[in-house]
Every structure is written in C-alpha cells, then in structure tokens.
Amino acid sequence: MPFSKGFKKSGSKKTIKAPSQKLAAHEDVKINGSLEQSINFVQDLLGTNVDMVIRRFQVFGKFPAAMLYFCNMVNQTSIHSDLLKPLMYTPPQIDRDSIELDQLKNIIINDALYYTGSMLESNLTALVESILRGCTVVVVEGIGDAFIIETRSIEKRSIDQPATEQVIRGPREGFIEPIGTNIALIRYRLQSADLHIESTEIGRRTKSKVAVCYVEGITNPKLVEEVNKRLSKIDIDGVTDSGYLEQFIEDNHLSPFPQVQYTERPDKIVANLLEGRVAILVDGSPLALVVPTVFSQFYQTVEDYTERFLLMSAIRLARLLALMFSLVFPAIYVSIISFNPELIPTEFAVAVAGGRAGVPFPAVVEVLIIETSMEVLREATIRLPQQVGGALSIVGVLVVGQAAVAAGFASPITVVAIALTTIGSFATPAYNAALALRLLRFPLIIMAGIFGLYGVMIGLILIANHLLSLKSFGVPYLSPLIPGDFQGYKDLIIRGPLSWMTQRPSFLRQIDRVKLGDAGTKDNKGHEEPAPRPATNNKMEES
C-alpha cells in the first residue's frame, strides 16, 4: 500500500485478530517519528468521517503534535481542560527551555497528563483500534511512541427497573448497555476480594468486550476453564448481544430448551455467583448470561427468597402447575374430545357437544387454528408500539374470539381452553423457557389428534427422555431431581426455610459447599458438628 511506505515493521507478527482487512494488511506497521506520516496513515485507514477530529498543537509550546479522536465518543470539555491544556502549558516545576526531545516522553507521562488511563503504543493499527474504541491518541513529532488516553464517554440510559423481570419485593436496579456500569452493579452487591472478573474480546470487527465473572473459592476452576475454552473458540465478525454467545456455548444446539439462563438483574447474578455459577457479560447488552443452568431455575423468581418460605412455596407450586398446564392442557383436551369423551362427566359432555354443534372442523384442527391465531396475536402485540399493542390485544381477544364463536368457526369450550393455556404460559417467569413450551404444544396436539391419550403420553415420554439427556456445561439438566441431591430438594418444588439450606447444591461441584453458619453447625444438644468437607476432588464432566 502506498500510504504505508516509510514506516518500520516489527520483526514478529502479532497473533491478535484485526477488526478489518485494512488493519490486517498493516498490523505490523510501526511509528517512525514522522507526525505527518502517522496522521496520513490514520486518515487513509479510517477514511472520511465527519466526527473525526485532528487537533494540531505544540506540546509545551515547542514540540509539534496532533490529537486524534472521535468527537461523539468523548467528553470534549474534559478533553480541552484535562488533556489539551496540560499538554500546551509547561508544568510549573519544569523549565521549558531545558526540555529535550528524549525527555519529553517521561515528562508527559509523569508530570503533564491528568488521566490515569494512559499508555504508550508504537503500533499504528493499535492506535486506529484505540480511536475506534473511544480513546484519544496524541502523536508527537520525533517520538516513536504515541500516547493513548482512555477518554471514552458515551451517552447511556439511566439505571432503571428491569422491564422483563418485574418484582414486588426486591431491588429495582437492572443492567444497562455499558459493561463497566454492569460490573460496578455486581461489585456493589458482592464486595469481596474473591470476586474475579476476566476480560476478553470477541468479534473480528466489533471487538466486543466480554467479562467472565466468578467467585474464587466457591466456583469450580474446571467450570471457569470450560467457559473460557468455549468462548475462545468463537470466531465471528461481530457480537452485538449476549444472545450470540449463548448460541455458541450451549451444549445442544437443536434442543428447544434453553441451556443458558439470561437475566438483567444484578442481584440475581450475585445469587448465582454465590452458588458457584459463572456469569458472562457483553459490552452493549443489558442481559447477562449464567452457566450452568438447570430446568428448575426457569420457574423460580427473586421473590421466592425475599418473601417468607410458606407463602412463596405455595406460589411456586401454582407457577409450576401453570407451567405444566400450558404444555399439556390443549393436547389432553383434544384427546378426550376426539377419543375418550367418556372420561368427562355426562352433564359436561352434553354441554361440550352442544357447544361444538355446527363447528365444521375436528377438534385437533380447531385447536391448532386457535393456537396459531393466539401466537400470531401475541407476536403482533409485542412488535407493535405500546399505544397500539394494548388496543390490538383487546380487539383480538374479545372481538375476534366472540365473532369466531358466534359464526360457528370455533366452540366456546375450545376458546376457553386455549385462553387458560395462554394465561398459564404467561405465568412462567423465563421467556425463553415459556417459548420452548409453547413450541412443544403443537406436536403434542398433533399426536393427541392421531393417537389420543396414548399419543400424549408418548410425547411426554419423549420430552422427558430429551430433558434427561440434556446437560449444561456437564451438569444434568434435571438436577437436583435427577440425579438426586437432598440439599437441592429443599429448593426444588417448594422453597424451604433459609435456615434449612446450610449447603450449596452439590451438582455444581463447588470448592466450598458451606453456605450458612460458621465452620460447623450445632445439633439440638449444643454440640458442634464438623462441617462437610469441600468437594475438591470432583471433576467437571466434559460436555
């Protein structure tokens, strides 16, 4: 390339992935001390950009220099007062006339710069990447290194209550897009030296920052190693949301059931970290990932632990019942109406037969049509603006449903059954788990229409076998139910008192399993019993 002529090249080739083909072709080009050539190199690589600022000035009034940055990614007031002004005026403890070029680098770093986040860099492609991230680059004539100053300041929305995970009793803070703010929200709740956060970059072009969070001394090191291993294998040009990573790191890509949990609640992340899980945060995404994940997590909420156990156990049972109800009720309705009407009371059977009089479709076709219509209506309600979506849902449910019944297109009992099923699916806290159950309803309905109750049982057996075969980072998906874990049973179907849950569930194979109390617990007679030994010899199963 003509604009790279005159620059030095390093002897060893860097192994990092360049964000574009332009940078990849010049990733070894070094600064040769020429201010104009460095500016031309950056301009040729970045092209025409209206927000690109190149501010020429003289360091301490005698050394030609230039400052390069994107004006919309920095706080220009801070640039002017805390960066440009100190570089233009000589520090009072330094005599300007005595400053030589070979001393300038140390004087700028140690006496002039007000920013703590500053470093030296000689690679020109690294300078371009820094400018793209929101840093400010200062190049001085005659110096083979440029100054990179962390000045990124991007407008962001305020911390607000999570929109997808509403609670009545619990914190009202939720993650936002910048990863730095999200890490601060986690550290605010988990102020421990054992909290470790490892950072990496994924995406050849986006260079998205990804943070892996875990608690040392609790989380199994083999789990952290496996998470980093799977993340390191991802080779994609851009990562704009944590959902991209979820699809790459899950064990079974063809399963409808989610094997990675996502949340935008910092308190939920901290609770999972203290249980021995690993959290993954992506810069630009308000949703953090939690691994490993088991099925029981998808019908549990934050309020299960902030309220008293007796009340929340009853609510959790109702939630679990609604979850199962939303999966099997349409199929059971079709099988009984089509094959086994003798299973329902005579009076109710007569009422159902009278309601179905005049309906031109079999029960299975009728249910599939109504179910498909409800899914389309639900999707339309989500995608439309909020002001229009509410009106559409009312029109779709009341007007269209009543008109379909009046026209003989559907029976009233079918509309009631599908409505109850839809309400049950709304009671599932996790949207991705509810989506999987909604998807599985359709094959169950078809099997019920062909084989009756036998088809429903066959479908449920296939779903159960699939759940038994699933794993999330080596952890069985139905843990702690299968394989059995007595400590996990206390928080499976019902939520036991907090005083009962003295240990962490063993299926995560933590280093330290003791959760409640001191090193030992006391029995009824007041004698101290030894605490369970940490499970240090267990190995994470390889997926």
The coarse overall form would be: elongated
Q: How far apart are the termini?
A: 47 Å
Average pLDDT across residues?
A: 82
Which class best fits the helix and strand makeup?
alpha+beta
By DSSP, the count of extended strands is 16
Count of separate DSSP helical elements: 18
Count of folded domains: 3
Strand order of the largest sheet: 3-4-6-7-5
Which range does the strand content fall in?
Answer: 5-15%
Portion of residues within helices:
40-55%
Report Rg.
31 Å
Question: Which regions contain 5 or more consecutive residues with pLDDT less than 50?
Answer: 1-19, 519-543
- Characterize the main sheet: 5 strands, antiparallel
What features would you describe in this structure?
By secondary structure, this protein is of the alpha+beta class. It has 3 domains: 2-149, no CATH class; 179-293, no CATH class; 318-444, no CATH class. The protein has helices at 21-25, 35-46, 76-88, 101-112, 124-133, 179-189, 221-232, 242-249, 266-275, 303-306, 309-338, 346-356, 363-383, 386-406, 412-426, 431-451, 453-469, 486-489, and strands spanning 8-9, 29-30, 52-59, 63-70, 118-121, 136-140, 146-149, 195-202, 208-215, 261-263, 278-282, 288-291, 471-472, 475-476, 520-522, 528-530. Helix 6 crosses helix 9 (266-275), helix 13 (363-383) crosses helix 15 (412-426) and helix 16 packs antiparallel against helix 17 (453-469). The longest helix has 30 residues, at 309-338. Residues 1-19 and 519-543 have low confidence and may be disordered.
How would you summarize what this structure contains?
This protein folds into three domains: 2-149, no CATH class; 179-293, no CATH class; 318-444, no CATH class. 44% of the residues lie in helices and 13% in strands. A hairpin with a 5-residue loop joins strand 15 (520-522) and strand 16.
